[in-house]
Write a structure and sequence with these properties.
globular, 7 strands, single chain, alpha+beta
Amino acid sequence: MRMELIQPFINSADAVMAEGLGTPVSIENLTMEEEAYRRKGIAAEVCLTGDIEGRIIFDVDQKTATAFASRMAGTELPGTDDLVREAVCELANQIIGNAITVLNDQGFQFRVHPPTLHTSERGSKSSEDTEALVMCFSTESGVVFMNVALRNHLRRAAHDAASAS
């Protein structure tokens, strides 16, 4: 996975979470995953199609999701409220929106699908041409995991065309 595809998501996640939670954010862990993704909290998934294809899952522990939703609402919310789940989707939407702007400026063209709640315990596994990078962001409220599985569709298409020649 090319870093120029991933870096906009890392930068955006850092900025949006720091502002949305009002606390510093740090990346605690960065790993490549081959196994199926296991949900840890409230998760939102965003899919991309076009020059860049794949998906990004934002997985927020309950405490952090509640803190983010409460800050957005301007009042304390209970941890099981639908607003907390919607806030996780909004967090994903804001992070993706910022990252997409950077990638569009680099000339990539793709479609971003709206965030959906990722409710299954396990997600899809990585494949030979789509690696998953998992980052753990630590905040004063708790942790947020970002699981990014992307591939540059144009580069793969060019490679396939060259192999066929």
